[in-house]
Write a structure and sequence with these properties.
Oligomer: single chain
Number of helices: 1
Helix content: 55-70%
Largest sheet: none
Radius of gyration: 28 Å
Structural class: mainly alpha
Keywords: Membrane, Transmembrane, Transmembrane helix
Strand content: under 5%
């Protein structure tokens, strides 16, 4: 039983793109800054007038 088989080994590396993570982080941090800015404006000027 002498069998010669050609075996091809293929290595796949999963590349993690750190730039995508950075872009997503900047996007969500910007959303948070805008949200807290609007919240601060509402508390200071809108609700501040009522109190």
């Amino acid at each position: 039983m002498d069998q010669n088989k050609d075996v091809e080994i293929e290595k796949k590396e999963k590349k993690t793109d750190s730039s995508k993570v950075g872009v997503a982080a900047i996007k969500y941090i910007t959303y948070l800054i805008i949200f807290f800015g609007i919240l601060w404006f509402l508390i200071t000027y809108v609700f501040g007038q009522l109190l």
